[in-house]
Model the fold of this input.
Amino acid sequence: MITRATVVTAPIVPANVRPASGELSRVLGGMLAVGICVVLAFAVMAFGSVEYWATCILQVASATLLLIWAAGQWANGKFSIAWTPLFVPALLLGVLIGFQLLGHTAYWYATWVRSIQWACYAMLFFVATQSFRGEGRAKLFGLFLVCFGALVALIAIAQGGTESDKVFWLFPTDTHSVLYGPYPNHAHYAGLMEMLLPMALVLGLGSLFRAHAKVLLLFAALIMAGSIFLAASFGGILSFVGELVVLAIVLLRQRKRHRALLSILVLVLLLSILVMMLQPAALQERLEHAQSKAEQADVTSRLAIVHDSLPMILQHPLLGYGLGTYVEVFPSFRTFYTNLVVNAAHNDYVQAMVEIGLIGFALIVALIFLLFREALRKARNWEHDYQGNMALAALVGCSGILIHSFCDFNLQVPANAALFAVLAGAAVTKRLDRDNVKRQGARSLLPFDYVREPR
Done:
């Protein structure tokens, strides 16, 4: 019987063939970890990978990462998989989508295209569970997310300050949404920051870095959180508050919680001061017109879309209409007039029930439940352990995007979905003990006076 801590191994080379060098295996493992970071950075900076060319590159890069992992296994001389219980509902979900492709879908081509995209996320999730094991790689991955998130936030703030209507001041967009940062939609940018800023926040609240490094980490979190308010996304702001609530609940379960809670309160106070100093015009304008006909129409239309989606669920309750078919099926159920294409339900959970039925939705609920259970187990000693720290930060980041999914479709943006998959994989990957960490060969790239040795 396979348990959550099991590593499945099997020889993959004949007995009379000498395995490749262990050094090559470590190099490929390092390439895999760096490759994941590069792929995530590309996906975000390529306008969220919503364009066809960017989506294609993301899919090819994900398959390449899987091949690098397989090459590392061959070089190591054995086939080794770090098991996690999340593999079970994920595999069952793949079986369900495969069954839809056999003819149980309203539009086969749409289901085929979306299934390839989901396979991309599955590959990223899998390689993340195999790659970010051990304190060295966990630390470097966390610091990459902190630096990258702060850089993107600074670019977004600078772009917003110039009131440019082009992405990166260069690329025009034909979207009717409010662009912010590298994304044509400000709400999707907020979803990105919801996943990135907890890494800086949790690292800054822990005991793994010295005081001056913790100040830098919390400052990075402050910049990223401030950019959510500057993006003027109500869903993003509410999701950020939800993240703080989730983090506070986790901290209240621990003995030494007062210092961390006090740090969160100080961060919220500084964020409030920062927002008042910056005086985000877009947010002020949205707040002033919150009762306007335009804002009310936006809320009403989203509620109408969800309302009209419910009969779709009742008509095909078990298996749904097919993955990716919402756009094609919804017009026949729409009860309101619009000259625009309704490209999503603006509620990822409702759309999931429409496309993959209640069976598929139950598997997604199981994935979320197991994600929280496994990550919380791994995060018990998060203050003094890089692996536990990353698990908690990744869990908080995933919580934010899951909350946001009640009022938007962030998980249908390829870059955000890819980051969510990697964070989920990093949160639940099997822990390596310190002896294995030394053999892994991962070393810190930070000056020693910035880092404290884990207890």
Summary: The two ends are 33 Å apart (CA to CA). Residues 20-79+87-281+301-447 form one domain. The beta strands are 7-11, 78-82, 166-167, 171-172. Residues 1-5, 12-20, 437-451 have pLDDT under 50 and may be disordered.
